[in-house]
Amino acid sequence: MLRIGVIGTGIMGAGHARFIQEHVEGAEVTALADIDPVRVSALANELGTVVLQTKSPEELMKSAAVDAIIIASPDSFHVEHLRLAIASGKPTLCEKPIATNLEDARAISNEIQAHENSVGKKLISFGFMRRFDPGYMRLREEVESGKYGKPLYVKAVIRNHLSPGTTSTGIFTNMAVHDFDIYRWLFKSDWESVSSFYPPHSSSAPDDLNDPLVFVAKLKNGITLVVDAMANGTAGYDTRVELVCERGNLEIGPFGDFAVRTLENFEVTRGGPMEINWMKKFEQSYINELRAWVGEIKSGEVHPDLATHKDALIANESAALGVASIS
Q1: CATH number, domain containing residue 42
Q2: 282-305 tens-digit pLDDT
Q3: Is 269 found in the same domain as 156?
Q4: pLDDT tens string 143-154
């Protein structure tokens, strides 16, 4: 049984812990760390397998009751907690982003590389779960089949439901960073340029937040991405994708449903009540990612779709192109 310690018991950390307990064979959560002891205690009681509750991430990582670590702390703590994970020598899955600025991202990426070189194997993975989402996996299969001709451009929607604390740059570095990763993964090309545009300001957003945002990004292979991003989309959590190809369009709907649209066949995506956060929409993605991560640790065989520190750094560097376009 792989014993996992989770740092952070908010939406992300608690979600990971529950998914492991309910859906990942051969693993269990044995330790929790968070500055909020009440939240830790409540989750520990729910899970029933936790033997260590602490405010200290370092204590969790050093514990003999922990074999592997999940970092789901706030973004600003990722670099600090990654350094502790390196010191522990234990396999780690860290939520994105790798850091909140490029200088720190490059520094910690170099430290991870040096650490992995010294031990001779990969130890740190990053949580870009869309790589394991059934919709994006189907999208990759359809693209690789060649049935619909050459991919031309992507239209995507990423709208959170009320995002207190989000900054104008954070729409790129925290939200759109997923898009920069997933389309690089899908089309096997790096980003070349990003241009930003601002529609009228939403009254649902704070005055100092540029929300909503529309940006156009171009990959080096020419495929273009057009994104409608909103941190305070009060209609609910909403992500959608339309890939326009030469001989048809491929869509991922707001509930993860997939549709193919051609001259001979026009499918539609489904409707229903919206969620207010991403955990339900991407539940299967997280489960698939956690299974892949646990499998990688147990087998010692690197999973090709688990994001590395290099992938996480490139995602940050790509988001920085977007940030630069609004400065």
Answers
A1: 3.40.50.720
A2: 999 999 999 999 999 999 999 999
A3: yes
A4: 999 999 999 999
